[in-house]
Amino acid sequence: MGCACGSSKAGGKVAGCNNNGACQTGGCNKMNVFDWLSNMEMPSQDTFNIVEVRFKNGRKDFYRNIDKLQLTTGDAVIVEIPNGHHLGFISLQGELVRLQMQKKKIANDNEIKKIYRLAHTKDLEKYEEVKKRELPTLYRTREIIRELKLQMKLSDVEYQADNTKAIFYYSAEERVDFRELIKILAGEFKIRVEMRQISLRQEAGRLGGIGVCGRELCCSTWLGDFKNVATSAARYQNLSLNPSKLSGQCGRLKCCLNYELETYMEALQHIPKVEAPLLTEQGEAKLQKTDIFKRIMWFGFREENTWYPLNVERVNQILELNRAGKKPATLTDDVAVEKIPVQTLNSDLERLDKKFQKGGKKKKKKKRNKNRNQNQNANQNQARKKE
Fold first, then answer.
1. Domain total for the chain?
2. Which residue of 158, 245, 356, 373 is 20 to 30 Å from 206, comparing CA positions?
3. What is the pLDDT of residues 115-155, one digit of tens each?
4. Which residues face 210 on adjacent strands?
5. 113 and 24, same structural domain?
6. β-pairing verdict for 192-197 and 165-171
7. Is the domain of 4 the same as that of 97?
8. Residue 337 is part of which domain span?
């Protein structure tokens, strides 16, 4: 797929921006769409005539190929927009476009705009010249916003290929009256102005960055649809409810909290709820730890420092006995489970600690021995000189 920020070569091919990962438009670091139906032969008369076109920062829209142009993924095309035209790149075509439209609930009607033609070298060169205006416009607009004291944050500017209109992407917590701002921008840059408000997650996706995991942000590489994330997702996964650890670059809850939530929910269905200590003849055993995937629950008595691992079936048996007013002799009756002392639960970490502690002590001893030998040699030399 072609890069939306690329410079043109001979023949109209896109060469890329050559910024080595620092692409300001987001067209280089956004993952491509995999067309898994590309190898299947489809009847030419039944080919779906709508294609998906991608613009700056991964913004996508659907356009109709009325003239039946021979298009391939990555081709630069000139598309119809209200009161002008724009340049985009083909990101998807064929039957997968039909599935994408169904997923996004977009109707196949006359409101879908059409593709004019394939972009020529002159079109790409003109588009590159137009794109050079975006960064100065962004900085100047931020200065105007500060002068007008508007409570809004401008994150990006996108010019149309015909240089007649610009879209200003901003985020704000409250409603903003930017009528005066639009008048100033239209008079200074001689363009039509469109203010488009985006969420904080969308803003982070457009700007990009590195997450706490060390990878690029999901919203700037492959994640297109943002789903609601609740704090209950962290509770089900036994994560710390510290806001600084749960929030991402956008200041909202991390989208990755939903990735494994379904797996945890399915595993929790088989874990019994232990709201009170288990009653045995030895005493009351409190729940200390639960491994929902291995289906093992650890219980411990108040006067002991040992945790007893029980499988889910045994816990259910004890709960049924307690409801009937009975107490088992021990926790591990009729179940061949070894008790695990608390000290050996993190045995791997303790082994590493002991290893480094031993190494440090040995080094200290060696240093002390060296110092003693040096002192003894010095004393012997002094005694010889006196003699």
1. 4
2. 245
3. 999 999 999 999 999 999 999 999 999 999 999 999 999 99
4. 216
5. yes
6. parallel
7. yes
8. 278-344
